[in-house]
Each structure stands twice: as C-alpha cells, then as structure tokens.
Amino acid sequence: MTKITILTLSDDGSQKPLVVCHLAADGTAICEGDAAAVKNLSEVGILNTAEAGKKLFPKDGAAFLAQLKNNFASGYLSVVEEN
C-alpha cells in the first residue's frame, strides 16, 4: 500500500476525505488533510495492534500506514487503501 485515505461520513450520508497519508521517498508517512486530525496523528500516534502497548507515528512509515485501518474502523470513519 502506498496511500491510505481516512474517510468521514457526512450528515447527508456521503463520505469525504478527512486525511490522506502516503509514503515519502525517505520512508516516512506524510499525512495531509484536516489540520486537527493530522496533528493528532503526528503527536498522539495510533495503537500498534501487532504489539500491545506500542504506538506508531508517521515517522514509522509503512508500519504506520498498515495499522491505520485497524485504528479507524467505525460507523463514521472508514479507510481506503490504494497501491
């Protein structure tokens, strides 16, 4: 996977991109979109479901991208992977 889009459900039932993350040439992940969500990903990180108690951050690159789908699956958020 080279690009992950986190979608949010709008009041009218449509989905719109909240954050788009992709791998940079240096192997880190770059996230763009909603400023608050991007800041949260960068500063708080996401849970690494493969290793209990550990967090991943955009600096962790492909591992971070792989775990996004496990952290953002709900009725209001979904993740789309693109290669």
Features:
alpha+beta, 6 strands, four-stranded antiparallel β-sheet
Q: What is the average of the pLDDT values?
A: 93
Q: What series of H and E elements makes up the topology?
A: EEEHEEHE
* Number of alpha- plus pi-helical segments: 2
Number of domains: 1
- What share of residues is helical? 10-25%
How would the global form be characterised? globular
Helix and strand composition category = alpha+beta
Major sheet: 4 strands, antiparallel
- How would you write the strand order of the largest sheet? 3-2-1-6
For the termini, the CA-CA separation is: 5 Å
Uncertain parts? none
- Tally of strands: 6
Gyration radius from CA atoms, angstroms: 12 Å
Q: Beta-sheet strand percentage?
A: 35-45%
Write a compact overview of the structure shown.
The chain is 23% helix and 37% strand. The protein is α+β, with helices and mostly antiparallel strands.
Set out the fold topology.
Layout: E1 3-9, E2 15-23, E3 29-33, H1 35-43, E4 46-47, E5 55-56, H2 62-71, E6 77-82
Antiparallel strand pairs: 1-2, 1-6, 2-3, 4-5
